[in-house]
Design brief:
By secondary structure, the chain is of the alpha+beta class. 29% of the residues lie in helices and 12% in strands. Belongs to the RBR family. RNF144 subfamily.
């Protein structure tokens, strides 16, 4: 791993060191990389590791500047990313970009067949409505809305099958129990989500919707994770009882802290209210006074 190089102060004027916002080390300019769009500067090693992590995890298709306070909210261009990562990672990045484009395009959709990777075209005038789509590769006829076999005259099912396949996946990749299927769709935005390990509380990276992996029930308002105390998902969170209790203690502590702060501040707010109202009345009266002649 590259280490920061420190030199006497009298030598800095000849070859100044630049600070990296990620690792807080100081490096010569030739070891730094400037993002073209926002002109933020980071050491090449840190920026490379940041880009590789996002591509491997599939977190972003548009890789943003690592500086959360970046004034221009810059993004790395494709040629900048290509110079940092290996060929295999670059191919994965382009694949993620393409899948994202198809997902957001109302006139395109993936063929739901487990052995087909084709992108099917929808009729533009009827794109938001359920319509029959025939794959040009495998000739499968399916519904554009629910991805099930075409069902003329019948409404789509309320929920999509949780054993839906990603492009290129085969049915052998899935277990017989649908609750343990490693790939499901977000119940809100229908984006594919893969779960390798971890707890059953999931958050969609696309729409930020929190839900239970097993029953797909919403957890957006379940801050204490009461969902896993009863019902079919009881004790299936994936954490020990002690960690769940600690989580609940932290959440309760946060709300209690805000409540205590409000309780302490309320007398001062009550005392300040008359003065605020008085000042407001004086200001309004002053505005109504006629201009001096």
């Amino acid at each position: 791993m590259t280490t920061a190089r420190y030199r006497p102060t009298w030598d800095l004027a000849l070859d100044p060191l630049v600070s990296c916002k990620l690792c807080l080390g100081e490096f010569p300019l030739e070891q730094m990389t400037t993002i073209t769009q926002c002109q933020c500067v980071f050491c090449t090693l840190c920026l490379k590791q940041y880009v590789e992590l996002l591509i491997k995890e599939g977190l972003e298709t548009a890789i943003s500047c690592p500086d959360s306070a970046c004034p221009k909210h810059g993004h790395l261009q494709e040629n900048e990313i290509e110079c940092m990562v290996a060929t295999e990672l670059m191919q994965r990045y382009r694949k993620l970009q393409f899948e994202r484009e198809v997902l957001l395009d109302p006139c395109r959709t993936w063929c739901p067949s487990s052995s087909c990777q084709a992108v099917c075209q929808l009729k533009e005038m009827d794109a938001p409505l359920p319509q029959m789509v025939q794959c040009s590769v495998c000739t499968l006829e399916f519904c554009s809305a629910c991805k099930a076999n075409w069902h003329p005259g019948q409404a789509c099912q309320e929920t999509l099958p949780i054993t839906s396949f990603l492009p290129g996946e085969t049915s052998s990749f899935y277990k017989s129990d649908e609750d343990d299927a490693p790939i499901k769709r977000c119940p809100k935005c229908k984006v594919y989500i893969e779960r390798d390990e971890g707890c059953a509380q999931m958050m969609c990276k696309n729409c930020k919707h929190a839900f239970c992996w097993y029953c797909l029930e919403s957890l957006d308002d379940d801050f204490l994770l009461i969902h896993y105390d009863k019902g079919p998902c009881r004790n299936k969170l994936g954490h020990s009882r002690a960690s769940v209790i600690w989580h609940r203690t932290q959440v309760v502590g946060i709300f209690a802290g805000f409540g205590l702060l409000l309780l302490v501040a309320s007398p001062f707010l009550l005392l300040a209210t008359p003065f605020v109202l008085c000042c407001k009345c004086k200001c309004s009266k002053g505005d109504d006074d006629p201009l001096p002649t």
